[in-house]
Specification:
483 residues, alpha/beta, FAD/NAD(P)-binding domain, eight-stranded mixed β-sheet, 30% helix, 22% strand, FAD/NAD-bd_sf, oxidoreductase, Oxidoreductase, FAD-dep_OxRdtase
Length: 483
């Protein structure tokens, strides 16, 4: 028997396998490493002493763009729109509203951007976890086509915003390589790349195993695909610049101001915060992976999942050129996939993935990521890590971002680990929805709320088991790919 996780039903189920229990144990105990000899890297990578865990537990991005509290200012008594959350989505929405002359304030329980907006990998993928066939089965063919097409629009919006507003965030349109786990996955990915090129005009193509080393200095995968409409940016710089533009446009942003309750008050809302009470005509919630008890309806529908990142110390230019010859963004086809990239200066490797821990900051998830890095790049066996940190991403049962309305409040949230593209776009669409701008508010992600999760009130007790089930599926897939 093997285990898998069905996001729609949020429960573990068993799938019959022809493998015997003994073979399954063997598969699960096998450590997969890259094929081929390990080149001599003496002098290229600094030695790392045990334990191989970084000492710096704050985001690498904060060195160039630390999150900061804003100067204290009194809360207004009344607003046209109050936004809960001052990350990418909240600021994008607030910017659009302020430029239309609305009185609007964004409240953040932490420093603006201190959550996922300054902790992510900075990859502009806009990926959607369910594949096209799954979305079509659940929501219909029309919805599936619209969601696929909107990813292109959302990326183009982001890139145009960066250019038009002169956003200094180290953005580079490098392209993305996605590694395939086995020949069957490669064949499926190659067909998908061909369809992307035909349907949406995206430069996308397959990379056979024989040509893989032109894109990534590893033999771990069995070929892959490239999309040239994806790049990388410095996420903390992007947030800082977005905050600068929003403030200059008239958005009032209040840091370290927690919302404790939101209640209907006639035709308006009474919002109680740690700094006082605000009367608002409209409320927009953009809390995503940091949703708390102030919005219980949303809290029962979003699961905060830790995403952890490690960063190497500076590597030699020769080694970086060998491991990442095109300086592309890199992802893969596992259930619990890793994502990785060169830092904007091209001197380090940033490597991220899911973290099964729920409390504290234990060493095990860091070591798990480091093992994944070395499996792909054996040359980094002795590389030191300079930084490690985690942040929350928000998952829901169907794994799609969302705009929806409930009891008069509008929600823009649930970015499922792809908020660099989706949060600014969906925040903008939500702002136009509040203003009644029908055409500009149109998005395929404006539909019913995500389904609630039974027996869940904000404590994701089930996530370690789900992540372990995904890991087992990945081990089976890797074993089968190398039989």
């Amino acid at each position: 028997m093997t285990l898998s996780f069905d996001p729609e039903k949020l429960k573990l189920r068993s799938i019959t396998s022809s493998s015997t229990d003994g073979v399954m144990r063997s598969m699960c105990e096998t450590t997969v490493s890259a094929a081929g000899p390990i080149p001599n890297t003496r002098g290229e990578v600094a030695h790392m002493h045990q334990p191989r865990v970084a000492d710096n537990n704050t985001p690498y991005w904060w060195e160039a763009a630390p999150t900061m509290p804003l100067p204290q200012r009194p809360l207004p008594k009344k607003l046209d729109v109050l936004i809960v959350g001052a990350g990418y989505a909240g600021l994008s929405a607030g910017l659009s509203l302020a430029r239309e002359g609305r009185s609007v304030g964004a409240l953040d329980a932490m420093n603006p951007g201190e959550g996922a907006s300054s902790r992510n990998g900075g990859i502009t993928s806009g990926s959607i976890r369910p594949d096209y066939a799954t979305i079509a089965r659940r929501f219909g063919e029309e919805k599936a086509i619209a969601i696929e097409a909107e990813g292109k629009v959302a990326r183009e919006f982001l890139y145009d915003f960066i250019k038009t507003e002169a956003i200094d965030c180290d953005f580079q349109l490098t392209g993305q390589f996605k590694g395939a786990i086995g020949h069957q996955q490669y064949e499926r990915a190659a067909r998908s790349a061909e369809q992307l090129a035909k349907k949406l005009g995206i430069e996308s193509y397959a990379v056979p195993y024989a040509e893989q080393r032109n894109y990534i200095g590893s033999d771990f995968y069995r070929g892959g695909t490239v999309r040239m409409d994806i790049g990388g940016l410095h996420p903390a710089k992007f947030h800082a610049e977005l905050l600068r533009v929003a403030l200059s446009s008239g958005l009032a942003v209040h840091s370290n101001t927690a919302v404790t309750s939101i209640e209907r008050d006639g035709a308006e809302f009474r919002v109680v915060t740690s700094a006082g009470t605000v009367q608002a005509r409209q409320v927009l919630v953009c809390t995503n992976g940091y949703t708390d008890g102030a919005v219980p309806f949303l809290r029962r529908r979003l699961v905060p999942v830790r995403s952890r990142i490690i960063v190497t110390e500076e590597l030699s230019p020769e080694l970086m050129a060998r491991l990442m010859p095109k300086r592309m963004m890199l992802v893969e086809g596992r259930q619990l996939s890793f994502y990785y990239r060169p830092t904007p200066d091209g001197r380090r490797i940033l490597f991220g993935g899911r973290d099964s821990s729920r409390v504290g900051d234990p060493a095990a998830p860091k070591l798990f990521l480091r093992k994944g890095l070395v499996n792909i790049f054996p040359e980094l066996e002795n590389a030191r890590l300079s930084h490690t940190w985690f942040g929350n991403v928000a998952m829901n049962r169907d794994m799609l971002p969302r705009i929806f309305e409930k009891d008069g409040m509008v929600y823009a949230t649930g970015f499922c680990g792809s908020g660099v593209v989706w949060a600014p776009w969906i925040g903008r669409c939500a702002a136009h929805k509040l203003m009644g701008h029908g055409e500009e508010a149109q998005t395929a992600f404006d539909f019913r709320p995500p389904a609630f999760i039974p027996f869940y009130r904000g404590n994701p007790w089930f996530m370690p088991a789900i992540i372990q089930a995904y890991r087992m599926q990945d081990r089976v897939a890797l074993w089968r790919a190398r039989r």
